[in-house]
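Question (not urgent): is this output format expected?
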Amino acid sequence: MARFLVDSNVFIYAEVAEFEEHRTAVSALERARTSLISTNAIVMSEVHYKLGRLLGWKEAERRCSNIIRSAFVVYEPLFKQTMSRAFSISRSYNTTTNDALIAQHCIDLGDRLLTDNMKDFKRIQGLEVTGLR
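Got this back:
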C-alpha cells in the first residue's frame, strides 16, 4: 500500500480556509489517508512556524498537535543516515537543507511525497512525487 509523506505546504493550505488551495489540499489529504500519511520533525516545524505567523502560536500548537495525534498520520523520526544523505542532495540539486531532508526521508521510507512544490522536488532522482494540483 502506497504511503504519502505530506509536505508542509499541503498541511498549511488544509489548515487555513482563506488560501485558494484550501479545498484542493483538504481533498488531497482525504485521498491520501485511504493509504497512509506520514510526517516528520522537519515538516511539522515548518507547519508550526507558518501557522504561528498566520494564526497565532497557541492556535498553531493546537493544530499541529491535532495533526501528529491523528489516527491517519504516522510520525517518522529522522535518523543520522538520512541526514547525511540529505546533505548530498542539498549540494547536488542546489536545494534547501529542509527540502533535501524531506526528499531523502521519503526515499528512505519508500514513501511518495505529496507537495505543491513540484519545481524543487521533481528533479531529485529516486523521489516519487505527487503534485497537489
